[in-house]
């Protein structure tokens, strides 16, 4: 028996769940303990990408790690070992608390993937709905249901790491509702809240799976969009602007609507989260000064 076969035989007989992924997070190995703990057979997960949300790891604060802040991809990027306590979603829907240890997979001095070893922390399992509610409270804005500022920051950090590793560009959109203070003073905060909810619903229904749109605070919103060319960023921002202007709410038989000013920029090699957000913010303010209800992008 070859050494590699011996190693796999040992791993398959461990009581801990073990799985391997390549640098793009495609699952390449899933041991027998992983099957028992998760309920997923190897045939159901090998070949799939862990970003698909098969296990949908959530940390103790409710952060959805498969979407933002994935420790496995962080280890693939920097080669550092990591440990975390997370909630794994079983195939049958309930949540299991597990402790995960993550290691880089190295060949000839190059990182070719990652290894995650997970051990059930306790015999207690948790209802899926309970954990999902906790996650929603931690990461979503209570009024609009959109990702909140904390979620956006984590997602941006993840997209920056992805860009540096795989050169996958993205655009950042910074949107501010025009004259929203005046709208609230005229029609009341309840109607203002209703407008924000309607706008959020309109935009959510038009998002791709790879994109994120969230509430930054007050009447400010941020969008993170995958793009292939700079012109894509402008077209996406213009689509959002039009959606806002055409989202209406009834008040005493009157159709009310608002407009938005939007700044949009594309990631640069020397960017961090603060620099790209500040740049988009400044572009948005240029739009405010030039008449509002417009999209301003880099020259």
Task: Summarize the structure in words.
The chain has 299 residues and is of the alpha+beta class. It has two domains: 3-135, 2-Layer Sandwich (Beta-Lactamase), CATH 3.30.450; 140-297, Alpha-Beta Plaits (2-Layer Sandwich), CATH 3.30.70.270. Helices cover 39% and strands 27% of the residues. The chain has ten helices and 13 strands. It has helices at 3-12, 32-38, 42-45, 71-78, 128-139, 149-166, 180-187, 189-204, 230-245, 273-289; strands spanning 17-22, 27-30, 58-59, 82-89, 95-107, 110-120, 170-177, 212-217, 220-226, 249-251, 254-256, 260-266, 295-297. Helix 7 (180-187) packs across helix 8. The mean pLDDT is 86.
List the helices and strands and how they pair.
Blueprint: H1 3-12, E1 17-22, E2 27-30, H2 32-38, H3 42-45, E3 58-59, H4 71-78, E4 82-89, E5 95-107, E6 110-120, H5 128-139, H6 149-166, E7 170-177, H7 180-187, H8 189-204, E8 212-217, E9 220-226, H9 230-245, E10 249-251, E11 254-256, E12 260-266, H10 273-289, E13 295-297
Parallel strand pairs: 12-13
Antiparallel strand pairs: 1-2, 1-6, 3-4, 4-5, 5-6, 7-9, 7-12, 8-9, 10-11
